[in-house]
Amino acid sequence: MQELIKLDLVDLASATALMAIVIGLSVWENLGLELNLVLATGRTILQLAVLGYVLDFIFAFDNAWAVLGFLVLLLTITAIVARNRITQKIPQVLPLVWGSLLLSTTIVILYTNFVMIQPHRWYEPQYVIPLAGIILGNAMNAAAIAGERLVNTINNSHIEIETHLSLGATPQQAIAQYRKDAIRAGLIPTVNQMMIIGLVTIPGFVAGQILSGVNALDAASYQIVIMFMTAFANLLTIILLTRGLSRLFFNSAAQLVR
Questions:
Q1: Pair 57, 133 in one domain
Q2: Domains contained in the chain, number
Q3: Rounded distance, CA 87 to CA 47, Å?
Q4: Which is a Gene Ontology cellular component entry for this protein (predicted)?
Q5: Separation between Cα atoms, residue 235 and residue 253, nearest integer Å
Q6: Total-model pTM
Q7: Whole-number Cα distances in Å, 192 to 196, 199, 232
């Protein structure tokens, strides 16, 4: 296959022209999205440029601590984003999200590294960083959906929960159905994606690999691994998060306190 055709500043400027057209269309249709589109364009350029330079440095530095430090930073950012979508009123949510993401991502990355890919070094940046980034991004979205669903449902169901408690149910029994619904809601996007992947669209990872000159079958094989990693990490993250969240709403006397 042909090697990757590199893009220069002129090519990137040409791509930016597409966003100028998008902004122009927004003005034409009187959508009122111009400022948001300008900000989104600027942030996309800035954030991805910074990411490119940082990854280039880490790959060149080739040090385990640099890789781990970057992953911790990535983990912290994703945890904050997920927490902000769930609720900012409960201080304990951030460490709970952070810990859930850490445990699920660590397990799936270690399993994939030592059982399937088996790179020469466990911290090989070429594999660990992109795989961890994909897993964290997907788990963040799943956690945000499930966590927000559970918190909102509990906040809107105080009377029903207190009725169950007064009839002798434990806190976990009183909200068991809410938790199951939240877990399902968080996992539905993953299941839906797995049902249609490769049929409706070419996944971004596969497209990127093919563009870089990787054999299409090899790219598809990695995408299969990534999808299964994602399903595992998403479900484990949601289970840990919803279990932890459900405990934050009750005190030691099994009383609903939030």
A1: no
A2: 2
A3: 25
A4: plasma membrane
A5: 30
A6: 0.86
A7: 7, 12, 15
